[in-house]
Amino acid sequence: xxxxxxxxxxxxxxxxxxxxxxxxxxxxxxxxxxxxxxxxxxxxxxxxxxxxxxxxxxxxxxxxxxxxxxxxxxxxxxxxxxxxxxxxxxxxxxxxxxxxxxxxxxxxxxxxxxxxxxxxxxxxxxxxxxxxxxxxxxxxxxxxxxxxxxxxxx
Length: 154
Fold this sequence. Notes:
By secondary structure, the protein is an alpha/beta fold. It has a single domain (about 10-150), classed as Rossmann fold (3-Layer(aba) Sandwich), CATH 3.40.50. About 25% of the residues lie in helices and about 25% in strands. The chain has helices at about 20-30, 45-55, 120-135, and strands at about 10-15, 35-40, 65, 80, 90-95, 110-115, 140-145, 150. An eight-stranded mixed beta sheet has the order 3-4-2-5-6-1-7-8, sandwiched between helices. The chain is globular.
């Protein structure tokens, strides 16, 4: 997805928060930037959970979104999908649950979100980092401080 000089790839290492706590915040910031988002999810159960979570994100707000397998998916500001098509013309790609990623995808930014408490996810993310680094990708690594704030560590 990112040869040297193209889009950024940001790794988010979850240690203190869960995916359903972090993802809505990142999606909200993405929309505030004027971008559309594509959330690639491999597990159908997780897709269902995220779909529900985004509608009930906060008491006073929700994140408008849709699923790629539903009508009018191309109009959605946030699109949940399990395939590689960029069905809503998104500028931001979110990779969760070790979903696939194509090295040639033309996104402004890719967020790879992984659970640092799960050894398999951690090893997968390390392997992905190494492969992308060797390919000359524009990488950043973010981790949470003890106060819950995100800090760029690499």
